[in-house]
Amino acid sequence: NTWKLRRGWSLLRQKEYPKAAEYFTALVKDLKKPEQLAEANYLLGNSYLEQEQYTPAIKAYDASLAAQPKS
Fold first, then answer.
1. Is residue 71 scored above 70 in pLDDT?
2. 69 has pLDDT over 90
3. HSE (CB half, 13 Å, CA atoms) of 53?
4. CA angle, corner 15, sides to 25 and 37, nearest 5?
5. By the 8 A CB rule, do 25 and 47 touch?
6. Distance (Å, rounded) from C-alpha 7 to C-alpha 69?
7. For 43, phi and psi rounded to 5 degrees?
8. What is the largest CA-CA distance in the chain?
9. pLDDT over 90 for what percent of the chain?
């Protein structure tokens, strides 16, 4: 699934923010590993933030924090 995260990240780098948000929204439903889920939600939040969609960005960031493995 690492390559899937990188594919979404490349959409962000290309400033394809709506496509990235759509991609990460679908991806978070399939990820099982907490660290990957945390990263995907973080990147989802970034894609919303770049579109000035603050409420969904905050929700994605909260989901990222919730998915973080406890250390």
1. no
2. no
3. 14
4. 30
5. no
6. 23
7. -65, -35
8. 34
9. 90
Show Cβ contacts of residue 28 under 8 Å, excluding neighbours closer than 6 positions. 37, 40, 41, 44, 63
- pLDDT class of 2 with cuts at 50, 70, 90: confident
CB 37 within 8 A of CB 31: yes
**Six token digits for residue 25:** 């929204």
CA angle (51, 38, 22) in 5-degree steps: 40
Structure tokens at 62: 């909260």
Of 48, 44, 50, the residue nearest 67 (C-alpha): 44
Question: What is the DSSP track for the chain?
Answer: -HHHHHHHHHHHHTT-HHHHHHHHHHHTTT--SHHHHHHHHHHHHHHHHHTT-HHHHHHHHHHHHHHSPP-
d(CA 57, CA 20): 13
